[in-house]
């Protein structure tokens, strides 16, 4: 005789669904067709002999939340088109924005400081194939698994946590089996919670700890089933520390390379991209991306953005070089044109006949003139030359560094400036 706690679930299995693997039906004598469980009584089951895959949606396109080991007791919540919604002991790994979390006095334990905070499969806020898998209330305490960007402040980061009791994902009906005949589902569930022996492993596989039980082998294959994530712990306690997986180490390395690339003048983004692609390769099983692979895929967008920025910078630098080259060509042409009009312009800072003038205040000034045009006012701050001696002569003047007579082609007031003579040559007496 099967305990009433199992009757609802067995009736669910009898309904048609999209399951790909057959489920062995229970003998008809054990489940009378007319049997009904009380509406408020939860039902319980186990993950099938091949294990199960917990997803964020009742669809194969839903994100893989974790692999559920064979035999894990499940607390069923409902059914939809060949899928069952179920809780698993110890919860599953999911992401929460750090802006809604605060640290507590207990290491590895965080507390919600926001209302109705979403838990998501990926460490990002958009709803594009990243719909929330549950909601957390203010004051709820959760166990930390890891942070997406430990180099950031908690409020700016995404944090991976174990979901508290009461949160569920979706399993294919074909992956689920009934409890043993006569088993009390509520007691089996309570025992699993107390022992903590069915904490699901995160999607990324971590190496087994010394002394841990070997992974079970899926019947008919040589593929190991997912191992239990941690040794037995008290209900609600954080999983025991485990060594990082190769994918996790590679992800940390990729993030280090990415951070260095952000500040480099000429970043080697091909190296960063290759590091993230290694993470994806290491953390992909049977076409399913693990959490580190998913994080790597998201962060590859940052690499692509940096690549675009680097390309824009390179184009800007190339444009500057082109502009400088074009300007140099134009300057050379200006000099050639000036030389064609005035061959002496290339040899001297200024040239012309030195004229002596007296301003309104009675001060004597000396000007180089060409015909009716004033070229520049001439001075000699070193005292090397007495300009009075050169009055009326046609001079070629080498100016102090930086001084230059009017630019070629300029005339009138705009062309007049002061030139400090360093060397004077008499071109015509």
Biggest sheet: strand arrangement? 13-5-4-1-14
Unreliable residue stretches: 1-41, 197-242, 406-415
What is the radius of gyration computed over CA atoms, rounded to a whole number of angstroms?
A: 41 Å
Structural class estimated from helices and strands: alpha+beta
Q: H/E series, N to C?
A: HEEEEEEEEEEEEEEHHHEEHEEEEE
Tell me the span between the first and last alpha carbons.
133 Å
Extended strand count: 21
**Mean pLDDT, as a whole number?**
75
Word description of this protein:
The structure is a single chain. By secondary structure, this protein is an alpha+beta fold. Helices cover 24% and strands 25% of the residues. A hairpin with a 2-residue loop joins β4 and β5. The protein is rod-shaped, with a radius of gyration of 41 Å.
Quick overview of this protein structure:
This protein has 429 residues and is α+β, with helices and mostly antiparallel strands.
Observed structural traits:
5-stranded antiparallel β-sheet; about 25% helix; disordered N terminus
Element layout with pairings:
Elements: H1 7-13, E1 43-47, E2 52-55, E3 64-68, E4 73-80, E5 83-87, E6 93-97, E7 101-103, E8 109-112, E9 117-119, E10 134-136, E11 141-147, E12 158-162, E13 169-172, E14 176-178, H2 185-195, H3 246-263, H4 269-282, E15 284-285, E16 288-289, H5 291-341, E17 350-358, E18 364-370, E19 373-379, E20 394-399, E21 418-428
Parallel strand pairs: 19-21
Antiparallel strand pairs: 1-4, 1-14, 2-3, 4-5, 5-13, 6-12, 7-8, 8-11, 9-10, 11-12, 15-16, 17-18, 17-20, 18-19, 20-21
Helix pairs in contact: 3-4, 3-5, 4-5
């Amino acid at each position: 005789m099967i305990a009433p706690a199992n009757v609802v679930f067995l009736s669910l299995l009898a309904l048609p669904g999209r399951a790909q693997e057959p489920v062995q039906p229970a003998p008809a004598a054990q489940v009378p067709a007319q049997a009904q469980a009380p509406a408020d009584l939860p039902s319980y089951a186990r993950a099938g002999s091949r294990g199960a895959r917990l997803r964020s949606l009742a669809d194969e396109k839903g994100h893989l939340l974790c692999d559920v080991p064979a035999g894990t007791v499940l607390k069923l919540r409902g059914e939809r088109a060949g899928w069952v919604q179920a809780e698993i002991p110890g919860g599953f790994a999911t992401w929460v924005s750090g802006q809604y979390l605060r640290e507590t006095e207990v290491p590895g334990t965080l507390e919600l400081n926001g209302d109705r905070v979403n838990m998501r499969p990926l460490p990002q806020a958009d709803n594009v194939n990243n719909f929330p898998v549950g909601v957390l209330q203010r004051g709820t305490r959760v166990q930390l698994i890891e942070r997406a960007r430990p180099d950031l402040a908690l409020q700016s980061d995404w944090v991976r946590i174990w979901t508290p009791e009461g949160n569920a994902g979706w399993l294919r009906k074909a992956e689920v089996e009934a409890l043993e005949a006569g088993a009390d589902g509520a007691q089996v569930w309570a025992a699993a919670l107390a022992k903590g022996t069915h904490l699901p492993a995160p999607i990324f596989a971590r190496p087994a700890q010394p002394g841990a039980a070997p992974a079970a082998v899926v019947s008919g294959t040589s593929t190991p089933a997912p191992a239990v994530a941690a040794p037995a712990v008290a209900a609600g306690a954080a999983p025991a520390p485990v060594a990082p997986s190769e994918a996790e180490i590679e992800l940390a390395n990729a993030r280090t390379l990415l951070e260095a690339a952000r500040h480099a003048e000429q970043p080697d983004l091909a190296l960063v991209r290759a590091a993230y692609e290694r993470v994806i390769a290491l953390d992909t099983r049977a076409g399913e991306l693990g959490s580190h692979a998913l994080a790597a895929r998201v962060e590859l967008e940052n690499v692509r953005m940096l690549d675009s920025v680097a390309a824009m910078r390179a184009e800007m630098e190339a444009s500057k070089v082109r502009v400088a080259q074009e300007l140099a060509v134009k300057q050379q042409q200006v000099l050639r044109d000036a030389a064609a009009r005035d061959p002496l312009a290339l040899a001297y800072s200024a040239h012309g006949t030195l004229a002596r003038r007296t301003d309104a205040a009675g001060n004597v000034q000396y000007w180089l003139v060409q015909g009716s045009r004033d070229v520049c006012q001439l001075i000699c701050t070193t005292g090397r030359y007495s300009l009075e001696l050169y009055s009326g002569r046609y001079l070629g003047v080498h100016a102090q560094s930086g001084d230059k007579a009017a630019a070629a082609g300029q005339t009138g007031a705009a062309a007049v400036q002061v030139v400090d003579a360093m060397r004077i040559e008499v071109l015509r007496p």
